[in-house]
Amino acid sequence: MLIILCSLSWAQDSEMVEQDHSATFARFSNSVAYYGLAMDLQKFGLSIYLVQALFGIIDIPAMLVATTTMIYVGRRATVASFLILAGLMVIANMFVPEDMQTLRTAQAALGKGCLASSFICVYLFTGELYPTEIRQMGMGFTSVNARLGGLAAPLVTTLGEISPVLPPLGFGATSILAGLVVLCFLTETRNVPLVETIAAMERR
């Protein structure tokens, strides 16, 4: 509650509120989908050790692609596109027959790679959104919410006891919604000087 009150005290104008809430939701949703997908390895019908290794290896090219696109395309487009693509991959995986294990696993690995890319990008992006005088506080607040997303992920996974389509639908929809929020409400920071003060951000 104290963190929330501190967050609201920064928000002197609608832009600050919009940026803060959108960044917080993006990091929360990214963590929900990222950890949720990583925790649900047994559904692919292959060795969980093999799937875990594949999910780990996919993070390496994901980091390289994320770094390149952040530099040449921009932060907002990179985060939004990877989140939306990951969500589409996860939801599309629901319609692949269970006997096509290789395709299901490959599709999930690509989704995991997209989530890894957005995970890396959104961390840097968030830091650039806040003015320097409250940057550490803003990063701390969004990081707490990202950890809450990690805590919520296994709870979403347990919805599979009700219906097997609920976990992937939840992870996919959350990821797509977060991508749309980033695209619509966050400000592009590529090649833009960092804002130093809250007052300067209000004047922008």
Automatic annotation (TrEMBL):
Any one GO cellular component localisation term in the record: membrane
InterPro entries to which the protein is assigned, alphabetical: MFS_trans_sf
Keywords: Membrane, Transmembrane, Transmembrane helix
Transmembrane intervals: 46-65, 77-96, 108-126, 165-186
Protein localization: Membrane
Membrane topology recorded in Swiss-Prot or TrEMBL: Multi-pass membrane protein
Protein name as annotated: Major facilitator superfamily (MFS) profile domain-containing protein
Organism annotation: Marmota monax
